[in-house]
Specification:
single chain, alpha/beta, five-stranded mixed sheet, 10 helices, globular, binds acetyl coenzyme *A
């Protein structure tokens, strides 16, 4: 029988952004919008855009290499790869399978998880549970997106928000704490507020890329996001008999600076205890949390031993959190 470890633990992080940057000034040239409106309402100044032919899998590969290097783990040691993405290279094989082959991790389990912006937290939850059951020991967990591929560049209410990128962590079985818990939720009743307009078995017309684009009732999404994120923080702390001040650092989903500020305020946290990347990355959906985590780890904002809260909210609606001892 497999040894059942007490915890899974993040042993390395990595992230990767496409080279091309699209600034608010660039968007002013093609849309009825302004740098001032975008900064005030979202906090976003610029976003990275995948080049022609550059895929979610390409971004995931670069982030994965950096995370493996940081963890000092070789791809052949991995026994599972979980990729959170809502913009896979292909419907199948999964982005995780394409990544597995490129990394040379052949034979290990590989799958994608689609939970929109909560994709990485969901993927982390899946990986953590596989490790704590004793079934897997070393898992690569990725959040990667090329969401700008389905942005309607004529719709100012969504075009200014999104960016592309990838983040990854290596999660390993450990007797030391690690991931303390993950909390995952969804409510499909909100599907109409934030959605892609086509999929493979609905609305797909290959000749006009299925009329595929993102639609969002941003104002209503905003209100539910703030309310829901407050609740998941309470749920996570209660699961450990902890109080708000026990959290040393917050890694929130990077959708909107106002939502991040509201969450930090509700937690009684100073903004120097919160990583902010939305200004430079835009909303990169499931790539946002692992990229922000990597930025905070590499900049030294997150230090070993800190108690860190990861949280996300996205289309579905889906939402989730992870409480982690670094
Ligand atoms: N430039 C200028 N004006 C704009 C723009 C723009 N880019 N976009 C909208 N406006 C206008 C609107 O038309 C509206 O004008 P009106 O008052 O004349 O009707 C006005 O600005 C206000 O629009 P709101 O939608 O009310 O603006 P709001 O303050 O709510 O900000 C935003 C919009 C940024 C989208 C915000 O609602 C938000 O961040 N929502 C949450 C997004 C989120 O968290 N999504 C979840 C993750 S994404 C995922 O899962 C894929």
């Amino acid at each position: 029988m497999n040894h059942v470890p007490a915890y899974s633990r993040i042993t390395g992080t990595g992230s990767h952004l496409p080279e091309k940057i699209l600034t608010n000034a660039d968007l002013e040239k093609t849309l009825d919008t302004s740098d001032q409106w975008i900064r005030e309402r979202t906090g976003i100044q610029q976003r990275h855009i995948a080049a022609e032919g550059e895929t979610t899998g390409d971004l995931a590969y670069e982030a994965a290499l950096k995370a493996l290097q940081a963890a000092d783990v070789s791809a052949s040691e991995l026994d599972m790869i979980v990729v959170g993405t809502t913009t896979p290279d292909l419907v199948f094989p999964s982005t995780a399978c394409l990544l597995q082959s490129r990394l040379g991790a052949n034979g290990c389990a590989a799958m994608d998880v689609n939970a929109a912006c909560s994709g990485f937290i969901y993927a982390l939850g899946v990986a953590d549970n596989f490790i704590r059951s004793g079934a897997k020991q070393k898992v690569l967990v990725v959040g990667a997106e090329t969401l700008t591929r389905m942005v309607d560049w004529t719709d100012r209410s969504t075009a200014v928000l999104f960016g592309d990128g990838a983040g990854a962590v290596v999660l390993e079985a450990s007797e030391e704490p690690g991931v303390l818990s993950t909390h995952l939720h969804a409510d499909g009743g909100y599907a109409d507020l934030l959605a892609a307009t086509a999929g493979v078995s609905k609305g797909f017309k290959a000749e006009e890329r299925g009329g595929l684009k993102i639609t969002m009732k941003g104002n209503e999404v905003f209100k539910v996001a703030v309310r829901t994120l407050g609740r998941i923080v309470t749920e996570t702390l209660e699961a450990h008999g902890m109080v708000k001040s026990d959290i040393d650092f917050l890694v929130p989903h990077q959708a909107n600076l106002r939502i991040i500020n509201a969450t930090a305020k509700a937690l009684g946290m100073d903004m120097d205890q919160v990583v902010v990347t939305v200004d430079k990355h835009g909303n990169t959906s499931s790539a946002s949390v692992p990229m922000a985590l990597d930025v905070a780890v590499r900049s030294g904002q997150i230090k070993p031993g800190m108690t860190v809260l990861l949280e996300a909210f996205g289309g579905g609606f889906t939402w989730g959190s992870a409480l982690i001892k670094m």
